[in-house]
Amino acid sequence: MSEFNIPLAKPSFDEREIDAVRRVLESGMLVQGQEVLAFEKDVAQMQQVNHCIAVSSATAALHIAYLALGVGGGDAVFVPSFAWPSAANMALLVGARPVLVDVRSDTYNIDSRDLQARIEECLARGWGTPHVVVPVHEFGLAADMKALSEVASEYNLTVVEDAACALGARYDDRPVGSFGVMSVFSFHPRKAITTGEGGIIATNDDKLAEKCRMWRNHGQTTHGGQRRFLLPGLNYRMTEIQAAIGRVQLGKFAEVLQKRRIIAQQYISELVDMPRMTLPSEDPAHTWQTFMICLEDDLDREKVIEEFARRGITVASGAVSAHCLQLYQERLGYVDDALPTSLQLHKQGLALPVHAQMTMGDVDKVCAILREVLWGLSEGYEQS
Protein backbone atom coordinates (compact mmCIF):
# COMPACT_ATOMS: atom_id res chain seq x y z
CA MET A 1 0.00 0.00 0.00
CA SER A 2 1.37 3.41 -0.97
CA GLU A 3 1.98 5.96 1.80
CA PHE A 4 0.48 8.78 -0.24
CA ASN A 5 -1.94 9.34 -3.08
CA ILE A 6 -1.74 12.09 -5.66
CA PRO A 7 -4.48 12.02 -8.32
CA LEU A 8 -3.96 13.40 -11.81
CA ALA A 9 -6.76 15.96 -11.29
CA LYS A 10 -9.14 16.94 -8.53
CA PRO A 11 -11.93 19.56 -8.56
CA SER A 12 -11.78 22.40 -6.02
CA PHE A 13 -15.08 21.89 -4.19
CA ASP A 14 -16.19 22.96 -0.72
CA GLU A 15 -19.39 23.86 1.14
CA ARG A 16 -20.09 26.74 -1.26
CA GLU A 17 -20.87 24.36 -4.12
CA ILE A 18 -23.03 22.25 -1.81
CA ASP A 19 -24.97 25.33 -0.74
CA ALA A 20 -25.44 26.38 -4.38
CA VAL A 21 -26.83 22.98 -5.31
CA ARG A 22 -29.13 23.02 -2.29
CA ARG A 23 -30.45 26.43 -3.32
CA VAL A 24 -31.34 25.12 -6.79
CA LEU A 25 -32.97 21.97 -5.45
CA GLU A 26 -35.08 23.98 -3.04
CA SER A 27 -36.16 26.32 -5.84
CA GLY A 28 -37.61 23.49 -7.93
CA MET A 29 -36.24 25.09 -11.12
CA LEU A 30 -33.68 22.63 -12.46
CA VAL A 31 -33.16 23.39 -16.16
CA GLN A 32 -32.36 26.54 -18.14
CA GLY A 33 -33.29 29.23 -15.64
CA GLN A 34 -31.73 32.20 -13.89
CA GLU A 35 -28.59 30.33 -12.79
CA VAL A 36 -27.75 29.48 -16.40
CA LEU A 37 -28.41 33.05 -17.52
CA ALA A 38 -26.18 34.43 -14.76
CA PHE A 39 -23.41 31.93 -15.54
CA GLU A 40 -23.53 32.85 -19.23
CA LYS A 41 -23.31 36.54 -18.37
CA ASP A 42 -20.33 36.01 -16.04
CA VAL A 43 -18.36 34.01 -18.60
CA ALA A 44 -19.18 36.50 -21.36
CA GLN A 45 -17.81 39.30 -19.21
CA MET A 46 -14.65 37.32 -18.45
CA GLN A 47 -14.07 36.48 -22.11
CA GLN A 48 -15.01 39.97 -23.35
CA VAL A 49 -17.67 38.70 -25.78
CA ASN A 50 -21.28 39.69 -26.36
CA HIS A 51 -22.85 36.24 -26.12
CA CYS A 52 -22.27 33.01 -24.23
CA ILE A 53 -24.52 29.98 -24.70
CA ALA A 54 -24.18 27.35 -21.98
CA VAL A 55 -24.54 23.73 -23.07
CA SER A 56 -24.05 20.21 -21.77
CA SER A 57 -20.41 19.80 -22.89
CA ALA A 58 -17.75 21.35 -25.10
CA THR A 59 -18.37 18.53 -27.58
CA ALA A 60 -22.02 19.61 -27.75
CA ALA A 61 -20.77 23.17 -28.23
CA LEU A 62 -18.70 22.12 -31.25
CA HIS A 63 -21.62 20.21 -32.73
CA ILE A 64 -23.85 23.27 -32.40
CA ALA A 65 -21.15 25.58 -33.79
CA TYR A 66 -20.86 23.48 -36.95
CA LEU A 67 -24.64 23.35 -37.35
CA ALA A 68 -24.98 27.09 -36.86
CA LEU A 69 -22.33 27.69 -39.56
CA GLY A 70 -24.02 25.28 -41.95
CA VAL A 71 -21.07 22.88 -42.06
CA GLY A 72 -22.03 19.64 -43.77
CA GLY A 73 -21.52 17.33 -46.72
CA GLY A 74 -18.90 18.52 -49.18
CA ASP A 75 -17.11 20.66 -46.59
CA ALA A 76 -13.62 20.16 -45.17
CA VAL A 77 -12.84 21.03 -41.54
CA PHE A 78 -9.18 21.38 -40.55
CA VAL A 79 -8.35 20.11 -37.07
CA PRO A 80 -5.06 19.38 -35.28
CA SER A 81 -4.52 15.65 -34.96
CA PHE A 82 -3.03 15.86 -31.46
CA ALA A 83 -6.07 16.91 -29.44
CA TRP A 84 -9.07 15.27 -27.90
CA PRO A 85 -10.94 14.15 -31.05
CA SER A 86 -14.20 16.03 -30.40
CA ALA A 87 -13.66 18.61 -33.16
CA ALA A 88 -12.89 15.89 -35.70
CA ASN A 89 -15.70 13.64 -34.48
CA MET A 90 -18.30 16.38 -34.72
CA ALA A 91 -17.15 17.21 -38.26
CA LEU A 92 -17.84 13.60 -39.23
CA LEU A 93 -21.18 13.71 -37.43
CA VAL A 94 -22.44 16.64 -39.55
CA GLY A 95 -21.23 14.98 -42.76
CA ALA A 96 -18.06 17.02 -43.33
CA ARG A 97 -14.56 15.63 -43.83
CA PRO A 98 -12.09 16.33 -41.03
CA VAL A 99 -8.63 17.00 -42.45
CA LEU A 100 -6.04 16.34 -39.74
CA VAL A 101 -3.10 18.71 -39.35
CA ASP A 102 0.22 18.18 -37.59
CA VAL A 103 1.20 20.18 -34.51
CA ARG A 104 4.31 21.97 -33.32
CA SER A 105 6.66 20.02 -31.07
CA ASP A 106 7.30 23.02 -28.81
CA THR A 107 3.70 24.08 -28.10
CA TYR A 108 1.66 20.97 -29.04
CA ASN A 109 -0.59 23.35 -31.01
CA ILE A 110 -1.62 23.29 -34.67
CA ASP A 111 1.23 24.11 -37.06
CA SER A 112 0.22 26.91 -39.45
CA ARG A 113 2.72 25.76 -42.08
CA ASP A 114 1.31 22.25 -42.07
CA LEU A 115 -2.20 23.70 -42.14
CA GLN A 116 -1.40 25.43 -45.43
CA ALA A 117 0.07 22.22 -46.83
CA ARG A 118 -3.06 20.24 -45.81
CA ILE A 119 -5.36 22.82 -47.39
CA GLU A 120 -3.44 22.51 -50.66
CA GLU A 121 -3.58 18.71 -50.39
CA CYS A 122 -7.33 18.88 -49.72
CA LEU A 123 -7.86 20.99 -52.85
CA ALA A 124 -5.62 18.79 -54.99
CA ARG A 125 -7.31 15.56 -53.88
CA GLY A 126 -10.86 16.88 -54.01
CA TRP A 127 -11.61 16.14 -50.38
CA GLY A 128 -14.14 18.97 -50.13
CA THR A 129 -14.46 22.73 -49.95
CA PRO A 130 -12.25 24.18 -47.19
CA HIS A 131 -14.75 25.73 -44.80
CA VAL A 132 -13.58 25.79 -41.16
CA VAL A 133 -10.33 25.59 -39.22
CA VAL A 134 -10.47 24.69 -35.52
CA PRO A 135 -7.34 25.78 -33.63
CA VAL A 136 -7.21 23.86 -30.35
CA HIS A 137 -5.47 25.76 -27.55
CA GLU A 138 -3.96 22.55 -26.31
CA PHE A 139 -3.67 22.09 -22.55
CA GLY A 140 -4.34 25.80 -22.00
CA LEU A 141 -1.62 27.36 -24.18
CA ALA A 142 -2.86 29.70 -26.90
CA ALA A 143 -2.22 28.64 -30.49
CA ASP A 144 -0.40 31.07 -32.77
CA MET A 145 -3.53 32.94 -33.80
CA LYS A 146 -1.70 35.54 -35.90
CA ALA A 147 -0.17 32.95 -38.21
CA LEU A 148 -3.35 30.84 -38.28
CA SER A 149 -5.55 33.85 -39.01
CA GLU A 150 -3.35 34.75 -41.98
CA VAL A 151 -3.74 31.25 -43.45
CA ALA A 152 -7.47 31.27 -42.73
CA SER A 153 -7.84 34.63 -44.46
CA GLU A 154 -5.88 33.47 -47.51
CA TYR A 155 -8.20 30.48 -48.01
CA ASN A 156 -11.41 32.10 -46.74
CA LEU A 157 -11.72 29.73 -43.79
CA THR A 158 -13.99 30.39 -40.83
CA VAL A 159 -12.14 30.14 -37.49
CA VAL A 160 -13.81 28.30 -34.61
CA GLU A 161 -11.56 28.20 -31.56
CA ASP A 162 -11.52 25.07 -29.42
CA ALA A 163 -10.57 26.62 -26.10
CA ALA A 164 -11.89 23.71 -24.05
CA CYS A 165 -8.74 23.67 -21.91
CA ALA A 166 -7.95 27.37 -22.07
CA LEU A 167 -10.35 29.46 -20.00
CA GLY A 168 -8.27 32.42 -18.83
CA ALA A 169 -5.49 32.01 -21.40
CA ARG A 170 -4.44 35.01 -23.45
CA TYR A 171 -2.80 35.73 -26.79
CA ASP A 172 -1.50 39.15 -27.80
CA ASP A 173 -3.09 40.49 -24.60
CA ARG A 174 -6.56 39.28 -25.64
CA PRO A 175 -8.52 36.36 -24.17
CA VAL A 176 -8.40 33.19 -26.23
CA GLY A 177 -11.78 32.61 -27.77
CA SER A 178 -12.02 36.20 -29.00
CA PHE A 179 -10.24 35.60 -32.33
CA GLY A 180 -12.64 33.28 -34.15
CA VAL A 181 -16.24 33.79 -35.17
CA MET A 182 -17.07 31.37 -32.34
CA SER A 183 -15.22 29.58 -29.59
CA VAL A 184 -16.00 26.76 -27.18
CA PHE A 185 -14.97 26.11 -23.59
CA SER A 186 -15.24 23.05 -21.35
CA PHE A 187 -16.12 22.64 -17.68
CA HIS A 188 -15.22 18.95 -17.43
CA PRO A 189 -13.82 17.86 -14.03
CA ARG A 190 -10.22 17.92 -15.33
CA LYS A 191 -10.47 21.60 -16.18
CA ALA A 192 -9.42 24.39 -13.80
CA ILE A 193 -13.06 24.98 -12.92
CA THR A 194 -15.88 22.53 -13.45
CA THR A 195 -19.65 22.17 -13.57
CA GLY A 196 -19.32 18.36 -13.52
CA GLU A 197 -19.90 18.23 -17.24
CA GLY A 198 -20.69 21.30 -19.26
CA GLY A 199 -19.50 23.68 -21.93
CA ILE A 200 -20.13 27.08 -23.42
CA ILE A 201 -20.15 28.75 -26.83
CA ALA A 202 -18.81 32.31 -27.02
CA THR A 203 -19.41 34.68 -29.93
CA ASN A 204 -19.86 38.33 -30.85
CA ASP A 205 -22.17 37.47 -33.75
CA ASP A 206 -25.82 38.13 -32.85
CA LYS A 207 -27.27 35.90 -35.56
CA LEU A 208 -24.98 32.97 -34.77
CA ALA A 209 -25.81 33.31 -31.08
CA GLU A 210 -29.53 33.11 -31.87
CA LYS A 211 -28.99 30.01 -34.01
CA CYS A 212 -26.89 28.36 -31.31
CA ARG A 213 -29.60 28.95 -28.72
CA MET A 214 -32.18 27.36 -31.01
CA TRP A 215 -30.00 24.35 -31.82
CA ARG A 216 -29.38 23.89 -28.08
CA ASN A 217 -33.07 23.82 -27.19
CA HIS A 218 -35.05 21.70 -29.67
CA GLY A 219 -34.79 24.30 -32.44
CA GLN A 220 -37.30 26.57 -30.77
CA THR A 221 -37.61 30.29 -30.27
CA THR A 222 -40.36 32.42 -28.75
CA HIS A 223 -42.30 35.23 -30.43
CA GLY A 224 -45.17 37.03 -28.75
CA GLY A 225 -45.17 34.48 -25.96
CA GLN A 226 -45.66 31.62 -28.45
CA ARG A 227 -43.16 28.85 -29.13
CA ARG A 228 -42.00 28.45 -32.70
CA PHE A 229 -39.88 25.50 -33.85
CA LEU A 230 -37.61 26.59 -36.69
CA LEU A 231 -34.85 23.96 -36.65
CA PRO A 232 -34.65 20.20 -36.02
CA GLY A 233 -32.86 21.04 -32.78
CA LEU A 234 -31.19 19.10 -30.01
CA ASN A 235 -31.40 19.04 -26.24
CA TYR A 236 -27.96 20.23 -25.20
CA ARG A 237 -29.10 22.41 -22.30
CA MET A 238 -27.04 23.02 -19.18
CA THR A 239 -28.89 22.37 -15.93
CA GLU A 240 -29.43 24.94 -13.19
CA ILE A 241 -27.44 22.68 -10.86
CA GLN A 242 -24.42 22.77 -13.16
CA ALA A 243 -24.64 26.53 -13.64
CA ALA A 244 -24.94 27.16 -9.90
CA ILE A 245 -21.78 25.12 -9.32
CA GLY A 246 -20.10 26.99 -12.17
CA ARG A 247 -20.88 30.39 -10.67
CA VAL A 248 -19.20 29.37 -7.41
CA GLN A 249 -16.26 27.96 -9.35
CA LEU A 250 -15.83 31.22 -11.29
CA GLY A 251 -15.33 32.98 -7.97
CA LYS A 252 -12.39 30.66 -7.26
CA PHE A 253 -10.93 30.78 -10.74
CA ALA A 254 -8.20 33.39 -10.22
CA GLU A 255 -6.87 31.56 -7.16
CA VAL A 256 -7.04 28.14 -8.83
CA LEU A 257 -5.32 29.41 -11.98
CA GLN A 258 -2.52 31.02 -9.97
CA LYS A 259 -1.95 27.77 -8.06
CA ARG A 260 -1.74 25.76 -11.29
CA ARG A 261 0.83 28.18 -12.66
CA ILE A 262 2.91 27.88 -9.50
CA ILE A 263 2.80 24.09 -9.76
CA ALA A 264 3.84 24.20 -13.43
CA GLN A 265 6.76 26.50 -12.64
CA GLN A 266 7.87 24.16 -9.86
CA TYR A 267 7.79 21.21 -12.26
CA ILE A 268 9.84 23.13 -14.82
CA SER A 269 12.37 24.22 -12.21
CA GLU A 270 12.87 20.68 -10.88
CA LEU A 271 12.79 18.88 -14.23
CA VAL A 272 14.72 21.29 -16.45
CA ASP A 273 17.84 19.13 -16.42
CA MET A 274 16.07 15.76 -16.41
CA PRO A 275 17.38 13.49 -19.19
CA ARG A 276 15.29 11.22 -21.42
CA MET A 277 12.34 13.66 -21.70
CA THR A 278 11.37 17.12 -22.91
CA LEU A 279 9.36 19.76 -21.09
CA PRO A 280 6.34 21.68 -22.40
CA SER A 281 6.73 25.23 -23.63
CA GLU A 282 6.69 27.97 -20.99
CA ASP A 283 4.41 30.96 -21.41
CA PRO A 284 3.14 33.34 -18.71
CA ALA A 285 -0.36 33.21 -20.26
CA HIS A 286 -0.52 29.38 -20.15
CA THR A 287 -3.33 28.04 -17.94
CA TRP A 288 -1.88 24.51 -17.51
CA GLN A 289 -4.98 22.37 -17.75
CA THR A 290 -2.43 19.59 -18.27
CA PHE A 291 1.31 19.50 -17.67
CA MET A 292 2.58 17.03 -20.26
CA ILE A 293 6.17 15.98 -20.78
CA CYS A 294 7.32 13.87 -23.74
CA LEU A 295 9.43 10.77 -23.12
CA GLU A 296 12.17 9.62 -25.45
CA ASP A 297 11.16 7.01 -28.00
CA ASP A 298 12.83 4.02 -26.36
CA LEU A 299 11.14 4.50 -22.98
CA ASP A 300 8.06 2.38 -22.29
CA ARG A 301 5.36 4.86 -21.25
CA GLU A 302 3.08 2.14 -19.90
CA LYS A 303 5.81 0.97 -17.54
CA VAL A 304 6.27 4.54 -16.33
CA ILE A 305 2.52 4.82 -15.67
CA GLU A 306 2.54 1.47 -13.85
CA GLU A 307 5.49 2.46 -11.67
CA PHE A 308 3.79 5.67 -10.62
CA ALA A 309 0.55 3.83 -9.85
CA ARG A 310 2.49 1.40 -7.63
CA ARG A 311 3.62 4.43 -5.64
CA GLY A 312 0.12 5.89 -5.34
CA ILE A 313 0.40 8.60 -8.00
CA THR A 314 -1.72 8.90 -11.12
CA VAL A 315 0.01 9.90 -14.35
CA ALA A 316 -1.43 9.24 -17.79
CA SER A 317 -1.07 9.72 -21.49
CA GLY A 318 -1.67 13.31 -22.60
CA ALA A 319 -4.13 13.67 -25.44
CA VAL A 320 -4.52 11.34 -28.43
CA SER A 321 -3.78 11.88 -32.10
CA ALA A 322 -6.84 11.27 -34.23
CA HIS A 323 -4.83 10.08 -37.22
CA CYS A 324 -3.58 7.17 -35.07
CA LEU A 325 -7.09 6.09 -34.06
CA GLN A 326 -8.85 3.14 -35.69
CA LEU A 327 -11.84 5.27 -36.74
CA TYR A 328 -9.78 7.70 -38.82
CA GLN A 329 -7.44 5.09 -40.21
CA GLU A 330 -10.30 2.89 -41.42
CA ARG A 331 -12.59 5.66 -42.64
CA LEU A 332 -10.11 8.19 -44.04
CA GLY A 333 -7.01 6.11 -44.72
CA TYR A 334 -4.60 7.74 -42.26
CA VAL A 335 -1.45 5.88 -41.20
CA ASP A 336 0.63 6.44 -38.07
CA ASP A 337 3.59 8.15 -39.71
CA ALA A 338 1.47 10.60 -41.75
CA LEU A 339 1.85 13.29 -39.07
CA PRO A 340 5.16 12.68 -37.28
CA THR A 341 4.99 15.18 -34.43
CA SER A 342 1.43 14.18 -33.54
CA LEU A 343 2.53 10.52 -33.61
CA GLN A 344 5.39 11.22 -31.20
CA LEU A 345 3.15 13.03 -28.73
CA HIS A 346 0.46 10.35 -29.05
CA LYS A 347 2.92 7.59 -28.16
CA GLN A 348 5.19 9.30 -25.63
CA GLY A 349 3.27 12.17 -24.03
CA LEU A 350 2.95 11.81 -20.25
CA ALA A 351 0.63 14.00 -18.16
CA LEU A 352 1.71 14.73 -14.58
CA PRO A 353 -0.69 15.68 -11.76
CA VAL A 354 -1.86 19.31 -11.69
CA HIS A 355 -4.63 20.58 -9.44
CA ALA A 356 -5.13 23.24 -6.82
CA GLN A 357 -5.08 20.79 -3.89
CA MET A 358 -1.48 19.78 -4.60
CA THR A 359 1.27 20.97 -2.27
CA MET A 360 4.81 21.78 -3.29
CA GLY A 361 5.74 18.64 -1.39
CA ASP A 362 3.50 16.67 -3.74
CA VAL A 363 5.29 18.20 -6.73
CA ASP A 364 8.64 17.24 -5.17
CA LYS A 365 7.44 13.64 -4.77
CA VAL A 366 6.27 13.42 -8.38
CA CYS A 367 9.59 14.79 -9.65
CA ALA A 368 11.64 12.50 -7.41
CA ILE A 369 9.70 9.42 -8.53
CA LEU A 370 9.94 10.45 -12.17
CA ARG A 371 13.70 10.74 -11.81
CA GLU A 372 13.86 7.35 -10.12
CA VAL A 373 11.60 5.64 -12.68
CA LEU A 374 13.33 7.08 -15.73
CA TRP A 375 16.72 6.26 -14.30
CA GLY A 376 15.62 2.69 -13.55
CA LEU A 377 14.18 2.18 -17.03
CA SER A 378 17.31 3.66 -18.60
CA GLU A 379 19.50 1.33 -16.57
CA GLY A 380 17.40 -1.61 -17.70
CA TYR A 381 17.79 -0.67 -21.35
CA GLU A 382 21.52 -0.21 -20.94
CA GLN A 383 21.95 -3.60 -19.25
CA SER A 384 19.92 -5.39 -21.92
Describe this structure as you would to a colleague.
It contains 12 helices and 14 strands. It has 384 residues and is of the alpha/beta class. The protein folds into 2 domains: 232 residues, Aspartate Aminotransferase, domain 2; 131 residues, Aspartate Aminotransferase, domain 1 (Alpha-Beta Complex), CATH 3.90.1150.10. A 7-stranded mixed sheet has the order 1-9-8-5-4-2-3, sandwiched between helices. β10 and β11 form a beta hairpin. The longest helix has 32 residues. It starts with 14 loop residues before the first helix and ends with a helix. The mean pLDDT is 96.
Features:
2 domains; alpha/beta; single chain; globular; Aspartate Aminotransferase, domain 1; seven-stranded mixed beta sheet; 384 residues; 14 strands; three-stranded antiparallel beta sheet; Aspartate Aminotransferase, domain 2
